[in-house]
Amino acid sequence: MDFGLNGDQELLAQSARAFLEAEAPPDVIRRLGDDSVGHCADLNAKIARQGWNGILVPEAHGGLGLGMLDATVLLTELGRSLAPSPFLASSVLATTLLSSAASIAQRRHWLPQLATGATIATVAWLEESDRVDPAGVALRARRARDRFRLSGSKLFVLDAHVAHVYLVAARTAAGLGPNGVSLFAIPRDADGLSLTPLEGFDRTRRLFEITFDDVVVERDQRIGREGTAWKHLERMLDVACVAIAAECQGGAERALSMAVEYAKMREQFGRAIGSFQAVKHMAAECFAEIEPSRALVWYAAHAQGAHTREASRAASMAKARLGEVFSRTANTAVQMHGGIGFTWEHDMHFWFKRAKANEALFGSPAFHRERVAALSGW
Amino acid sequence: MNLEFSKDDEKFRRGLRAWLRKHLPKRHDEIDGGEDLNFVGDAQIAAAKSWQRTLYEAGYVAIEWPKEHGGHGASTVRQTILTEELLNHRVPGLIGQLGLQMLGPTLIRCGTTAQRKRFLPKILTAEEIWCQGYSEPGSGSDLASLRTSAEIDGDFFVVNGQKIWTTTAHFADWMFCLVRTDPEARKHEGISYVLIDMKSPGIEVRPLMQMNGQSGFNEVFFTDVRVPRENLVGELHGGWAVANTTLSHERNMLANPMRTQQLMADLLRLAARRNQNGGRVTRNPLLRQKLADLQIKVDMMKYHSWKLLSDEAHGRPAGAAASINKLVTTELNHDICTLALELLGDFGPLMGRSPHAEDRGLWPRDWMFTLGMIIGGGTSQIQKNIIAERVLGLPRGG
Ligand SMILES: Cc1cc2nc3c(=O)[nH]c(=O)nc-3n(C[C@H](O)[C@H](O)[C@H](O)COP(=O)(O)OP(=O)(O)OC[C@H]3O[C@@H](n4cnc5c(N)ncnc54)[C@H](O)[C@@H]3O)c2cc1C
């Protein structure tokens, strides 16, 4: 019985934190936040040199062949720093989807490119209905001889502006159930495809609408077998939940530590505001939520090693819990800063906004609590 | 990350299960004082003592104590397995709990050889039951302001004053007690930790009725009670440090994540069979949300306790783990019971005496008991002060 990170994982956490503190300090986050693109090629080239992009790619395909707990270590640090990076979209979500859905030849083609960071991929799943169940995939891919043609749109696609290729979920058969969902790898520059940025308040992660205007897709762009993609998406949902929960863990730790440092320094009524009990208890309540949550994230990451109901249940638990914990913490952290915390000038709002955006991403806390209830057989 | 138990640990678990199947009394009531440790009547007290002794002789009491003190030097993992199995088999709390979990570890760390020889064996066998004399009418959260005095008179302390909320004092043989030995010193520096024979002349115990109708705790009055000096634990005036060495034991005793899991499992069983307004409770979306929210917190505390176990095994510092546990777990236990009452509707307030009561009235009783645990052992507010000041480093005062 040994619950926790091993020596390598501890080292990875330390080196990732040091790397991101140096390469993605708050002024970089701020600059990228104000920027219209919000992506730093230089930063992501450095991330690639760290080898992070290959963390979930099997060694046979040029990756590090590590597991979700290892990825969680990096995601926690990315959430702590808020470094804008397509790591989640490409190295976690798209990589997970390709690893489970793609044919051997397709894996051999795509995974090595993703592992080096040379190619960035992202998943285009959600639509206007914002449903993360099978009915959420309504976009039709109509067969025209040995090709498919797509018309319609996808929403909430992470980092679509920097991704080279999109893994698009579309219907190849009528109905709204789990059968008939297929996946296609479509390049960003495909004819008839256009991008519109979704103007969200979280400027540290950019989301897009992708519009398909009669986009033609060759048969070999279909990932895996026709009509069978749903189970892979569902599996990816679990991984997404754990990944976002890990980001939230790091983000919450950072938001609280900023607030605590401020409370030690800021004086009112002739003394540090952190000496007021009302302020102390705000901080202590956050800490008492954050500290045990880490174990929930780690367990959920560990559970992904086996594709069981427990993996889904633990993932939803982590997503529901951490989404709320990060939001509450960031909210409290803003309040502990007073007026300065409400300004654009202060960095606090970056974490405040990411928290709310993460809470919504891939299913709200209520959705995931319901999923826990269903998976528990209640 | 490795969530398997070793072969030896699994063997221990199997042995324990087999033993329990054979020896656990069929009727738990005979040995069950409830969570309030309110054992009633000579027959129940005798039965509960004899049960602890049987368990001890089988090698299943205080196994984490060092061998030379009557334990087995067992690992924390094994201790956890033991607790888990006892809970799964619904073994009632041991009558000698306070001695086992609080005084024993204190004597092992701070006691003299003579004290250990004299007291530890009888703690293990439940021949002597202990109570904790810390709180006073004027000193609860601010425990260090306590005023019960102990003046030195030759080889004796002469104790005068009053303790309150003293759980099990009405049948305890001994009390571990904080007294003021130096009224001139600063408040933390004039306190001593003494062991008092409850049969000493000058002690009067008056039971107090708790809100749940149980008489778990008491007032204890001292009038010129003579306590031999050899019953001083640690240094004279050094009692605060002695009390603090084992404070985390108390917090962890009150905040057992396995007990929380059991309570949650009971709640789910209740939910599965209850209807509300003609519909199944487990079909009601709002109640499903509430159940799932609690289940997530319960599981989180389970994994967190695994993490703490492993941290301990690796020698990583526990930090404020005990305070966080106490704060989160006691509130969670109360939330679970509160939801149970919500599911029960008009049946919620029915106590065990009513033939209509669900689960023999356990829910309203525990709903109240769990509120008491938020207060006892340092209130939630006090735990938050500790977390803010000792972990987050926020300035004291205020
Ligand atoms: C069921 C039960 C069993 C118990 N068993 C024992 C026992 O066996 N032996 C024993 O010695 N004691 C026992 N206690 C006593 C327990 O330790 C005290 O009740 C507890 O420490 C609180 O002290 P108090 O009752 O004096 O409340 P107070 O200290 O007066 O607290 C009242 C309120 O003020 C708040 N407060 C006080 N100080 C602060 C502060 N600095 N900051 C913020 N808020 C503050 C508290 O949080 C609380 O909300 C038991 C209590 C209960 C409920």
Number of strands of chain A: 10
What is the H/E order of chain B?
A: HHHHHEEEEEEEEHHHEEHHHH
How far apart are the first and last residues' alpha carbons of chain B, in Å?
Answer: 42 Å
Residues in helix, % of chain B: 40-55%
Mean of pLDDT of chain A: 96
Text of the CATH class of the largest domain in chain B: Mainly Alpha
Task: Summarize the main sheet of chain A.
Answer: 4 strands, mixed
Global structural class of chain B: alpha+beta
Rg of chain B, alpha carbons: 22 Å
Under the CATH scheme, the architecture of the largest domain in chain B is: Up-down Bundle
Account of the protein in words:
The complex is a heterodimer of chains A (378) and B (398). With 378 residues, chain A is of the alpha+beta class. Chain A folds into 3 domains: 7-119, Orthogonal Bundle (Butyryl-Coa Dehydrogenase, subunit A, domain 1), CATH 1.10.540.10; 122-227, Butyryl-CoA Dehydrogenase, subunit A, domain 2 (Beta Barrel); 231-375, Butyryl-CoA Dehydrogenase, subunit A, domain 3. Chain A is 51% helix and 16% strand. Chain A has helices at 7-23, 26-34, 41-49, 68-81, 87-101, 104-116, 230-265, 277-303, 309-337, 348-360, 365-375; strands at residues 121-124, 140-144, 147-158, 165-171, 181-187, 193-198, 207-218, 222-223, 267-268, 271-272. Chain A has a 4-stranded mixed beta sheet with strand order 1-4-5-8, covered by helices on one side. In chain A, strand 9 and strand 10 form a beta hairpin. In chain A, helix 7 (230-265) packs antiparallel against helix 10 (348-360). Chain A is globular. Chain A starts with 6 loop residues before the first helix and ends with a helix. By secondary structure, chain B is of the alpha+beta class. Chain B folds into 3 domains: 7-95, Acyl-CoA dehydrogenase/oxidase, N-terminal domain (Butyryl-Coa Dehydrogenase, subunit A, domain 1, Orthogonal Bundle), CATH 1.10.540; 130-239, Butyryl-CoA Dehydrogenase, subunit A, domain 2, CATH 2.40.110.10; 255-390, Butyryl-CoA Dehydrogenase, subunit A, domain 3 (Up-down Bundle). Helix content of chain B is 46%, strand content 14%. Chain B is built from 12 helices and 10 strands. Chain B has a 4-stranded mixed beta sheet with strand order 1-4-5-8. A 4-stranded antiparallel beta sheet of chain B has the order 2-3-7-6, with no helix packed on it. A two-stranded antiparallel ribbon of chain B has the order 9-10. In chain B, strand 2 and strand 3 form a beta hairpin. In chain B, helix 1 packs parallel to helix 3. Chain B starts with 6 loop residues before the first helix and ends in a 7-residue tail after the last helix. The model of chain B has no long low-confidence stretch (mean pLDDT 94). Flavin-adenine dinucleotide binds at residues 132-135, 140-141, 165-167, 217, 372, 375-379, 381-382, 385 of chain B.
